[in-house]
What does this fold into?
Amino acid sequence: MHHHTDGPAAPAASAPAAPADSTAADVAAALEAAAGAAPALADLLPRERADLLRRVADAVDADTDALVGLAAEETHLPEARLRGEVGRTTFQLRRFAAVLDEGAYLEAVVDTADPAWPVGPRPDLRRVLEPLGPVVVFGASNFPFAFSVLGGDTASALAAGCPVVVKAHPGHPRLSARTGAIADRALRAAGAPEGTFALLFGEEAGRLAVTHPAARAVGFTGSIRGGRALHDLAAARPEPIPFYGELGSVNPVFVTRAAAEARAAEILSGFAGSFTLGAGQFCTKPGLLFLPASVSLEPLVDAVRASAPAALLNERVAAGFGGGVAALTGHPATTVLVEGTVDGDGAASAGWAPTLAATTVTDLLAHADVLMEECFGPAALVVSYADESELLPVAEALPGQLTATVHAEDTPQERPFAAALTARLRDRAGRLLWNGWPTGVSVTDAMHHGGPYPASTSALHTSVGATAIRRFLRPVTYQDMPHHLLPPALRDDNPLGIPRRVDGAAEPA
Amino acid sequence: MHHHTDGPAAPAASAPAAPADSTAADVAAALEAAAGAAPALADLLPRERADLLRRVADAVDADTDALVGLAAEETHLPEARLRGEVGRTTFQLRRFAAVLDEGAYLEAVVDTADPAWPVGPRPDLRRVLEPLGPVVVFGASNFPFAFSVLGGDTASALAAGCPVVVKAHPGHPRLSARTGAIADRALRAAGAPEGTFALLFGEEAGRLAVTHPAARAVGFTGSIRGGRALHDLAAARPEPIPFYGELGSVNPVFVTRAAAEARAAEILSGFAGSFTLGAGQFCTKPGLLFLPASVSLEPLVDAVRASAPAALLNERVAAGFGGGVAALTGHPATTVLVEGTVDGDGAASAGWAPTLAATTVTDLLAHADVLMEECFGPAALVVSYADESELLPVAEALPGQLTATVHAEDTPQERPFAAALTARLRDRAGRLLWNGWPTGVSVTDAMHHGGPYPASTSALHTSVGATAIRRFLRPVTYQDMPHHLLPPALRDDNPLGIPRRVDGAAEPA
It folds into this structure.
């Protein structure tokens, strides 16, 4: 990274003072209140919790202007992007309300007594998913709404019926405090149990929350280093709890020779747009582009040079990016194609121009520890290959990824290679894209946002989409239980009107 | 424990020499072969894997006599019980074949492209569950068939499409070897990929398998101490993997005053039968019976005294049980009601008579570290209470349980208390029973065999029942992928004929 000035990154003059760090007593009070709220929150009917979520979404909508103003100050993200993100956040809250209304998420299964069951008389057995209990959520820096205080982790945990204790990200403390106050007020007004929601500040408070006996699960989006440390704390507890961490990903993009021949210009311009979008501050930023060595990189270099410098989220991201780019561009196995620059004093709020470097497949594999590492910000690495067959071993050697992308031609000639490449990538990534770009994670039923470690600490779960709720639910089976002690989801008359499996088949509506 | 002789438990004269411990090279070869088999096994159609499971089940059925003979020698379990367990084991294999045939387990979701999607144009997104990769399974001692080499963990992992490396339990090495050979032969004959199944022996081999880079998940049934050590190894790997351990449980039974007044004799006799069944060697053995102090224990004492002595599984179980009973009966807060005895030299194969002790709720809570600990074998503790209200705090203080049972009268007078007690127990246990006994775990869709730690290391998952397969599957989403590169489950024409969710609703059949 070539700074226009040589001094260390200084905090922006307008940086607000962060709310004071929460004390150990604050953490204990929040978790104990959450434990106290858990039974009543679990006992609400799904449609009652759906109402809570909609009330929270309405309250966020009503405060959009002030929230966006604060977010812009604290994160340097442009207003249009922030407004869009507020919309995504309230959409998520309302989507989980719809999930509750539908009720399929409860996975209700009824097996009535069967004296003729092949392995011995079967009692009446009824299974439903119930909330785990208090969930600790760590807000992310790069989505100050959609992955923060009222982001997907909080929405899915509340939907599941779990009280939530959020540890605010230090990148947007005032926004976090305001969002938390909105949530708290809306939940109280809607009659949620006391203790349903709390907000904590400070790293030590986060660690204390993860290790507090009342915590039953953790949701996290952030760095590999920070996430792994918290994962290890959660696993080492006297009673280990699930830690759902979405950590790091380089989101490789593979371009076949035929695709490069057919439409190199389009691919190179799409790549430049995707890796510099939002100043490269997305978990799904494509950090590696595999290209035939014969492709001219000039159009890509021109596009990157023409890309407008943009601010970074905060000083911590700026410092991390500076270090990552230095490691990338200073590595003997890379060539710098575009040297990123930063205006002025190198503060996060300055204009950061993107960086582009190049290497070969052989060098990438030989120096994977540095060159396959996520560099969070506007930087990417072009990896050239002489022969397409080089791509298969590199696909197998990838660490776990959120996404992997193939650009190829859909022709009979390409199919065998595309199939071989895709087969390897599906083992290494949570989402596979064809002729597209990984940035932009649509919130839909079919979305999976996760992947093998380190993309996620639990490859079985997603942090985006309807099934994110399952992270915070556990099955309970009731055996020969009288009707009045069964949860409504399991009663004979199906008072919730939800889809159920009864005696091995879908229950007729 | 009062032994008729004072010497240490000696190995039975007929104890077979265990197969040699697997070497580090054996472990590496098994896991590497499993990794090699994984893509081909994953690519089989569900009905092709169903065929593999049925072929394995047929092969087990065909060898039942020899298997039961070996099992009886090695585990001292009665033949009728072992024959029943073989039936349960092949039933499980065939049930997972049926799960594959139905295909709902794939959770296929198709969201077609939607330019009008509220948070921005939605690409074509299709999600399906795919196998995690090689699974390491630790066989249990107490179900030498149903939770061992070809038990539920192996059946569900193979069904999911994951190669399996089993670490044999040292309690039945020759049976494990024979079962493993049957599996290997049947899988090869059915055309399963080379490396689909392997069998290892020895504790160190088990640890090496859990930490081998190719292992993607672990299934385990056994002790808290052993399971926790392996859990910690799995969590501390450079790439952590899920560890599904079913560990320990005391399976408390709560008897209300009204139930005791109405049918003490029936309850006491049922309890004696349940905790001595199979010499108390079940994960679901009820170890604690909460009773009003006013109930006469004489019928219980008589029933326990009349219970026939039985052999224990192996010398390790005998030694552990001896220690556990000594801690229980020697504890200052307990009174011995029936002192268990053991015939002869105290070998596992000798006759072990059951032990019954008593304490109070107050003492149980004060000495929970010893008195709430599982004592694996024919021993139980009666916990007397003066007032039913004492039961609520003790229900809250329980460690995580596989089961919790309430004996109460289904009358308007009882309902409020039964509801309060059940509400607390559902947070602490995976299965709640009413007026029944927890031993006997029916294999059905609605069964949940798991619970909060230490009952299980993952409260979200079960080791029995159809949903056990989900432990070994992870979601993958395909974005804008050409038809020929999609897995069959996600193609437009639904060639597998499975239930799917398409654009937010069940796809018409």
Q: What stands out?
A: DSSP finds 15 helices and 19 strands in chain A.
